Amino acid sequence: MVHMANQIALFFASYPHDEAVAGVTDHLKSFWEPRMRKQIIDYVAEGGHGLHTLAQEAVKRLGS
Amino acid sequence: MALIRETDYGTPKRISGTLVEIEVDGKAVSAPAGTSVLRAAAEAGIQIPKLCASDTLEPFGSCRLCLVEVEGRRGFPASCTTPCENGMKIRTQSPKLEKLRKGVMELYASDYPREMFEGAASGDTEFQQMLTAVGLKEVRYGYKSKNHQDGLKDDSNPYFEFDQSKCIVCSRCVRACEEVQGTFALTIDGRGFASFVSAGDKPFMESECVSCGACVQACPTDALLEKSVAERGRPDRSVVTTCAYCGVGCSFNAELHGNEVVRMTPNKDGKANHGHSCVKGRFAWGYATHKDRILKPMIRAKFTDPWREVTWDEAIHYAASEFKRIQAKYGVNSIGGITSSRCTDEETYLVQKMIRAAFGNNNTDTCARVCHSPTGYGMKTTLGTSAGTQDFDSVQAADVIMIIGANPTDAHPVFASQLKRRLREGARLIIVDPRKIDLVKTPHVKADCHLPLLPGTNVAMINSLAHVVVTEGLVDEPYVRERCDLVAFDQWRTFVAEDRNSPEATEKYTGVPAADVRAAARLYATGGNGAIYYGLGVTEHSQGSTMVMGMCNLAMATGNFGKNGVGINPLRGQNNVQGSCDMGSFPHEYPGYRHVSQDAVRETFEHAWGVKLQIEPGLRIPNMIDAAIDGTFKGLYCQGEDIVQSDPNTQHMSRGLASMECVVVQDLFINETASYAHVFLPGASFLEKDGTFINAERRIGMVRKAIEPLAGLADWEVTMKLSAALGYPMHYNHPSEIMDEIARLTPTFAGVSFEMLDRVGSVQWPCNDKAPLGTPIMHMGGFVRGKGRFMITEFIPTDERVNARFPLILTTGRILSQYNVGAQTRRTDNNRWHDMDVLEIHPSDAEDRGINEGDLVSLASRSGDITLPARISERMQPGVVYTTFHHAMTGANVVTTEFSDWATNCPEYKVTAVQVQLARHMSEWQENYLETRRLTTKIEKESTAND
């Protein structure tokens, strides 16, 4: 899951920061089933080790 | 329906804005300039006898039967080679012509099997029809003079025979092999009386022949004849239907004798195939009645138990009660389903409807997940719609054709024939592929550029091609200004212009010399209409979606959208993979690619279906398997899909399925997934049901029932029963009613109905008020999303890297004679061409390992290992090996990994780091496989069960 989230973050990393975070957030929301989103939200809540910073920011937005 | 005898107009149709006026037998006839007299007469209802002429072949003028008289001209010209000229007055019948024709036929008949001559009244062959047409009743010369009646008979091909004694050397077969198929396997050997048709002085089976059947189709005498007809007799009725193999979607006449199919012949009116076929569609249909077909439903408590045959009702109610039990215990989202790309649109629609409405969740997915899901994502993002932009015929207007990660001669052979025809006419060809596929160099075709990139570097390659376009001033600026989002374009232009995207900089990743990349980019951008065709070599990568967007960027920048001869064209794998996507099989989209979170769309479906629907996307196939291993996903309905054999990392897949409490498989055969199933519901082949398939060009073609379902129910009826047992009854009397519902709920299908398809043959979506007869070419005048959106496509190397332990890259694919997991083709004589998967390896890699041709080798990755025979092949580049996944026993996907496309989870089949070594025995997985199969496929027959 971390690997998948990082892949998504790396794609959007080419865009300006705000656009990139919005892109990752929208992707997770549009394509990840709720239990997957919950898992990644919990993972970030526990520190999010190894997760790309864009993915971390996006996941935090998802959880807020 | 009676047996269809297609009209043959003698020579191909000509297209011209100029009409020529002639007179035939006193009748005024007009025809486009360039039309032959033979065709113009036939179109006016005047049939001129002919033998060597066919409207699928260029005129040849050898048989001397289609002679006519032209007023004011001397002699008797052949009407097939005589073009219409204004004012021509033609006589097709006169005593002299009758005598000439009768004389010609008499000479042919004198060297033709007597029994065929005497049976001419049957009119089974064109030759016999011509005997009748010219009124030949006897042969004055007798049958004892020198003749060919002791000619050789070649029955080496499993599907057709060649009987020289019936051959009149009209060359139709040779010309069909050249002009229609483009293989050039046949020739006329010898001279004069000694001339004969030859497959290169070899039996057909050992020749270059690809068994497409074009020669058999062209033969007017039965010298080339399907063995099925020779054995079972002539058909007496036909049903026009659509092939159930690849995404070309060829139209066929299923020809039957009573209730038995005796042959499949390509339909000349088929808009995707124009009367052509390949070895699979034409001949490999015997699986439909193979003894391995499971015709009774079966259930078992544990997948290690023997199967127990039960009634339909018992099986359906067992499945439904298990699904209900699981949902009660683990929650509404603990089950899901997989729709089939081999089933019809109507069946696929019903399965996703049942999942959303009866299961109450969006856990629906389809095999496009593992093939073209990146196509959907990438094209929708950039262009606004998830499908190819052109019709197949568009290739005839292409000037530069770029093929990326596709092998059309093997995987989409009928389209490949059309493509080769255009290449023979002079279109230029660029191939981007790690392997030397056949199209790199094949008779009368030679690629202008072959860019043999390393697997996994597609995005680096497309960026470098775009870099050349942008930095050398090759952008179609007016097109971009008019059609595209300029902010996104400027972002993209700046990005690709960076030096790191230049061919010189990316060479270290792709392995392709920069000069070759520059030459290819210039050719594509400046050579006229540029058309890109691509396959799974694009999508099945960790950057599959990025690459699709990269191709769209390149095509937009060069103005290659929205007209004939251009575009981005995915060559879809399975017969209805486009349709299964269109029908809302993905967990985040309703039919017509509309997200489940869109309130207005969801409310439309809620209103129509009478239930509340979930707002959140569901699980994709790999997510379902992960969730099963995590313990939150416990039940699966899998229709016509074999995820154990086709999906990556077989052992992970098997663990996931083994973790579930109820797996329902609906299929023709006990496939590999069924080894882990608790309920087996017999499927129906394409011959046993009505419906539609949608091919790679968005063409909706009719599938028509030729025989009754062998197990009693068509697949759509089974889904209805299961849904009813789950408490959500659906009421359809016929698949046409399902299509009517699809049309009501899906704007791009609004104009589609079975009645309309019966009337027009087939139609390409969108088909609605704006395009009542469909849309052959998308994005004309503007993109579906409004302004085309350039996307930044940074090259990010895959995490699957070669290292000392796994120093080679494995890439997997398909071959001509087998189809997907082989469930159908392995149960036909196509096995004669490919009875096992082999590992193709470059000579230098083989030599380093002491591997010789045919040696058993171990193929190992971090996921697992298998053994298979080696084939030394210079088609491979050093460092890259290749195999297919057609045989379950090989277990090619034991080796592939769980890495996948970032956007869609399409597996990265094309890049797996592996090691290859000599081996002495099967791998542990293969040994376990045999035991697992033995255990899990046992059937306790009904009679035994009752004892």
Describe the structure.
The complex is a heterodimer of chains A (64) and B (947). Chain A is mainly α and 64 residues long. Chain A is built from 4 helices and no strands. The longest helix of chain A is centred in the middle third of the chain and has 15 residues, at 17-31. The model of chain A has no long low-confidence stretch (mean pLDDT 96). Chain B has 947 residues and is of the alpha/beta class. Chain B has 5 domains: 19-134, Roll (Ubiquitin-like (UB roll)); 153-289, Alpha-Beta Plaits; 299-366 and 586-696 and 707-750, Rossmann fold, CATH 3.40.50; 373-570, Dimethylsulfoxide Reductase, domain 2; 808-935, Barwin-like endoglucanases. In chain B, strands 16-15-26-27-28-13-14-38 form an 8-stranded mixed beta sheet. The mean pLDDT of chain B is 96. The interface between A and B is medium-sized, with 18 and 29 residues.
**CATH level 1 class label of the largest domain in chain B:** Alpha Beta
**What is the average per-residue confidence, as pLDDT of chain B, rounded to a whole number?**
96
Count the strands of chain A? 0
Q: What characterizes the major β-sheet of chain B? A: 8 strands, mixed
Termini gap of chain A = 20 Å
SSE-based structural type of chain A: mainly alpha
Extended strand count of chain B: 38
Q: What sequence of helices (H) and strands (E) makes up the elements of chain A?
A: HHHH
Please give the largest β-sheet of chain A: none
- Count of the domains of chain B: 5
CATH architecture of the largest domain in chain B: 3-Layer(aba) Sandwich
Number of domains of chain A: 1
Form type of chain A: globular
Task: Give the radius of gyration of chain A.
Answer: 10 Å
According to CATH, the fold-level topology of the largest domain in chain B is: Rossmann fold
Principal-axis shape of chain B = globular
Strand content of chain A: under 5%
